[in-house]
Amino acid sequence: MSKRAWLWLAALCALPALAQTQTPWQRIAQPVAGAPQAIGSYANGCIIGAQALPLASENYQVMRSDQRRYFGHPTLLAFVARLGAEARTQRLGTLLIGDMAMPAGGRFNGGHASHQSGLDVDIWLQLPQVRWTPQQLRQPVPQDLVAVGADRVIPSRWTPQVGELIRLAAQDPQVVRIFVNPAIKRQLCETAGGDRAWLHKVRPWFAHRAHMHVRLRCPPGSVDCEAQTPPPAGDGCGAELASWFQPPPPRSTPAKPLTPPPLPPACQALLAQLHG
């Protein structure tokens, strides 16, 4: 997907008009029964047969569980469990799980443009050695690893454990992309050493100063899942990364009003069935 298209998604994510109105997907309280199916694209889709991530685990903790954004395709749940176990084995700390998807996926009213088909998860780049209290999980306070507008990580907040967590996630065969702040990508490029094959999956993106956004490939059997173009070859540490630290070119034309794209037919049919 082009950077222009991604800019559209970023703007859609923060669109005030959408944030003021609850989407029909947010009124769906339970997963839709059926064989698990990720439908549509990551930024315009839904899911049948979603499963809830178990809230009790020794390897991770789920934040803001009252918002019920801890649903996903079974492959996503398996990935979280797998990464949490690996982090525990290496004594990195406890994973802090943020937003996944709503019970039937679909569009949020703000905060995310993607996370719609049950294949995305936000994982905070904090690895507490002491498990968080229920109060901390209800009202979590993110720790930015990058100051707003900065082109380097904050040295006192960066740890080798964070870099290792991102590497472990990127090396998982089900992962196709991991979005992080450009300064975090730069830090990884500078510290990766000779093992750099995983770096091409780590993609610089706006914000993402305190978490990584992990995206999985379309699962087998999800025939209506729209795969994303694979990341470019190479480690992404050269001119592409440098371009994120250049001033944006001036706009030659005014920005056009943003409107959400039409839903995939299968998601339209699902909404019609659930809401009549």
From TrEMBL:
UniProt keyword annotation of Hydrolase present: yes
SUPFAM superfamilies with a match to the protein in the record: Hedgehog/DD-peptidase
Keywords, alphabetical: Disulfide bond, Hydrolase, Metal-binding, Metalloprotease, Periplasm, Protease, Signal, Zinc
GO terms (BP aspect): proteolysis
Region (Disordered): 227-264
GO molecular function: metal ion binding; metallopeptidase activity; serine-type endopeptidase activity
Annotated protein name in UniProt: Penicillin-insensitive murein endopeptidase
